[in-house]
C-alpha cells in the first residue's frame, strides 16, 4: 500500500509540490487534445515539477494482448497559442552602433524588428560576456548563477565558479520539458573552461543545459575564418578547403536548416532558437565585400568626435533618448581628440572602424536571413522575436591604438600605429585577429560614458533591444523607456508562453526567478507606465552600482578597461569613490549629485550592500588577466608530468593542456621515421597568433616558438632524420619566478626569458636564449594537438592539418614550475600586506 501511494503521488505534481513545501497556487488547467491513450493524444503539463512525472497507464492489461487495451502517454506540448521564440543577441555592440538606436552602421534587420514591434531604450546588461549570457538564459543575476566574471576567470567562490548549478534550470531546459524543440547556435561562453575538453563532463555544455542542438564555439571568441567549432560536443572543421567560408554565414545557415528541418517533419512543433553569433566581438572578421560596402560609405572619415555628435543628433530625432538628454563629455587626457592625430593614425583608425562596421552590418544581414526564413515558413505572426544588440557595451579591449591581434592586449603588449600599418591591407582577414581603438568604442556608446567591463556606467551596460510578436504586439514602431535588465527576458518568455517557472527540476528545488516580465510593455496602454523592475545592482571587477527607482549609485573605474594585465586593486571594497545620479532627470549620468544628496547617497549605499550580500557577489575581486591563470579543478590541476600514447589527438582546449608558460619544461617525443621519410606535426599548442610547434619539415626536426605573431624563435636540426627510431627533445630553462608571484598580487614573475635547448637522439643540435616569453595567455581559440595541427599554423613552414606521416611512439611533457624561497615569499607577502594597509587607510 505504501508503494502504491508513492506511485500515485508521482502522478499528481501539484499535490507533490504542495506536500514538498513548494509554492502553492493552481496552475492553468491542463490542455489535452486527441483521444486519451491514442498515439495522437497531446497534453500540456503542470510545469512546476520537471521533468513531468510519468503518466499512469490508462489502458487495461490482461493475460493476453487480444484481451488487453493499449494506451499511450500523451505527447507533451506547450499551451495553446504559445509562440515560437527566436532569441537573438549580438556581441560587444555599444548602444549607439546600430542604426536602430542612432548609429551610422546600417542594421536593417534590427530596424525591421523595431518597426514591426517595439524599441527598448532602457535595457541593460551586466557589462561583460559570460555574466550577461548566464543571466539571460536563467532569469537570475549573474552572481546568483556563478558567473560574476567570464568563464575563463572563474574562482572557487559561489558567485564566481562559472557553474550554472541544477538549482538554476535554463529557459532552454524549461521550454524543452514543456514541449518545445530547442537549439543554441552561436557563442557559448557559459561552460567552465576546465570542462571544455573531450573528457567533459558535458552537463555544463549547451546540450546538458536543455538545448537539443548546439552549433557554435566555446569561450569568449574565435576566428570566424578558422573557428574552434562544435556540433553538439564534437569538434568539426567545415572551413578546411573552403577559403571563403565564414562562421557568421555558417551559423545562419545552420539556424535556417534546423528550423526548416523541424518544419518539414512537423509544422506544429514549436521551437525555441537561441541564436547568438560572435559578431562583433574581436576578432573583427567580416567578408571582403562587406568591408568594401562600408568603405564606400565614408562613415568614419570625420573621426570619432564628429561621429559622437552625429549619433547624438540622430538619437534625438529617433526619440531613443529624451530631448533633455545631455551628451557626456569626451574624456580629454584619457583619449585623444581626432584633430590631435597625424595622417597615418587617422588612416589606420578609419580602417579599423570600417572593418568593425562591416562586421556588424554583415552580422545583422545574416540575422535577417534567419528572420526571413521564419516568415517564409509562414510562422512570423506567432513568433516572438527578441533581438538584443550586444551583451555589453562596445569593447575597449583594443588599446587606444587598436591591435592587429587581440592576444597581444591580453598579454600586455601595445603596438604603436607605425608598427600596425603592415597589417593595414590585411585588417579583417584571417591574417589578423583585430580589434579597433578605444575611442571608437567610446563613440559607439554615445551618449553615455565608458565601455564594456564598466558596470557602473551605461556605456558598459545599456543595450538597444527590439521585440516583435505580430500576433500580440500591435503598437508597431513603438518606443519603451521602462528600466529593464537581461534577467527580465526569462520571465517575459514564461509569461508569453503561459508556462510557469518550475519549483523543482530533477528533484532539485529551484532558486526563484529574479527578473521581472516585460510582457506588460507589449500593450500600447502601458507605453508610459512605471517600470516594474525597481531595483538592480551591477558589479564587475569590484566596480559597483545600484539602480533604484530612478537613482543610480556608481563607482568610477580605477583601472582603464584596456589595461588587462596589471595587478588587482588591493582592497576593492573601499578603494572606489561614490557618485550619485538622478536618472529620472539625467538620462546619461552626466551630473554627479552625491555632494548635494548625502542622505540619498547613504540610503543607496546601504541598499547596494544588501543586494551584494544576497546575490553571492562577495568577496569583491578586482583582478583581470591574472585571474585567467588562477588554479582551477581541470584535468591538469596539480600535474607536472603528461604522458601521451602518441595516437593522433587534436582539439584539446587551453585549460586541459599542459601549461608551458612561465615555467621550465621539457617536451620529449619518441618517433619512428618510415623508409620513405616523412614530415608533419608531432605536437603543437597555438597557431598563427602565438604558440609552439614540434615537427618534421621534409624530414628535418624543427621546434618553433611563435611569440604572439610578432617574432618567431626557431631551433632545428642540421639534416633530415634517417629512417628508424628517434628521440626529439626540447628543454626550456625559465629564468623568472613564474606564476607563483601572482598569489601575492605581483606580476614580476611572468613573461621572463630563458634558454631553449633542442636535442636529437640525445645530442644538442640547437641552443638559443629567448629574451621574453608569452606572459599570460596563449591564443584562446587554439588547441593542443598531437600528430596534426587543426586550426591555424604556428609557422608559415606548412599548411594545416599537416598530419604526421610517421609514427609517434610516445610524447611526454614535464613541467618544472619555479618555487619561491622562504625569503622571496616573505618579501612578496610584506609588500602585499603594506598595499592592503594603505588601501584600507
TrEMBL record:
Q: Which UniProt keywords apply?
A: Calcium, Hydrolase, Metal-binding, Signal
What Pfam families would the database entry show?
Answer: Sulfatase (PF00884)
Q: Which ranges carry the Sulfatase N-terminal domain?
A: 83-499
Signal sequence annotation: 1-17
Any idea which GO molecular function terms this record carries?
Answer: hydrolase activity; metal ion binding
Q: Which domain of life is it from?
A: Bacteria
Q: Tell me yes or no: is Protein transport among this UniProt entry's keywords.
A: no
Q: PROSITE patterns of this UniProt entry?
A: SULFATASE_1
- What InterPro entries would the database entry show? Alkaline_phosphatase_core_sf, Sulfatase, Sulfatase_CS, Sulfatase_N
Q: Which family does it belong to?
A: Belongs to the sulfatase family.
Kindly provide the name given to this protein in its UniProt entry. Answer: Arylsulfatase
Organism expressing this protein natively: Kaistia soli DSM 19436
